[in-house]
Write a structure and sequence with these properties.
Number of strands of chain A: 5
Order of helices and strands of chain A: HEHEEHEHEH
Mean pLDDT of chain A: 84
Largest interface: A-B, 37 and 29 residues
Strand order of the largest sheet of chain A: 2-1-3-4-5
CATH architecture of chain A: 3-Layer(aba) Sandwich
CATH class of chain B: Alpha Beta
Number of strands of chain B: 5
Bound molecules: iron/sulfur cluster
Mean pLDDT of chain B: 81
Helix content of chain B: 10-25%
Number of domains of chain B: 1
Structural class of chain A: alpha/beta
Oligomer: heterodimer
Distance between the termini of chain A: 28 Å
Radius of gyration of chain B: 20 Å
Number of helices of chain A: 5
Helix content of chain A: 25-40%
Strand content of chain A: 5-15%
Amino acid sequence: MNEEELGTDLKKRIKEVLSGSLHIRHVDTGSCNGCDFEMSTLSNPIYDISRFGVSFVPSPRQADMLMVTGGVTSNLEKALRITYEATPKPKMVLAIGACACGGGVFGETYANAGGIDPFVPVYVYVPGCPPRPQALIQGILLALDQYEEVLKRGE
Amino acid sequence: MFDMLRKIWQVGTVTEKQPFEPAPKKYRGKIELTAQKNTNWEECIAACPTGALCMNVNKIRLFYGNCIQCGNCVKICNTDALTQTTDCYQAVNAKKDLFISVDKDEEK
Ligand code: SF4
Ligand code: SF4
């Protein structure tokens, strides 16, 4: 996917798939906050993702998409499960950053599970430490493609 | 208030235009792995802080999900087998797409 598609597509795709708005809930499962900062960069004036109809919401009950950062520490494993269950179906889950994809710098230890895929089904993996905001937008686009198929199947 | 208006006037629009500009030249992006003879694979693997680069019998395997794009392996590598690009678009749908592997002693 090239950059040109990326910008023009997001608005169009959100309109097609979700009729105009996408609500994202951010779940921190023990990240170093690098990825979280990149995510908050999306809503600043430089990237301004709100103009595409994307907004970050404070509760998982309002969300279409969960963005999970961090490699699931043993203390936050329960929080991830509860948040996932609280999100209405169908729900998208994005694994953001090397930590959420496979452990990253923290690896797999007694305190860190090393990736979120043992706990929740993942739609899209966005590697990088941290990934650029543009890469996050590409991740959202890929997730929307898959979401459309799920909606068509009527799950 | 006039200060604020003056500032708005001077700064103008900062929002990035579509399409987005490519990453800066110094950006550390995706690592490319190619097969090359006489590469010091052991040292490259030892330099990797996350274990993203590893050896599996005769295969060199790179797992993008773990790679933090630090560039240590590229610095150590004595051939062009490992190179760093400025590509940041790495999102994939399935985890198996994050693995790439090459033969250790093969020419590309
Ligand atoms: S992937 Fe890197 S930046 Fe993101 S939470 Fe993990 S260590 Fe921090
Ligand atoms: S860039 Fe860093 S983390 Fe990635 S394979 Fe090379 S040494 Fe390992």
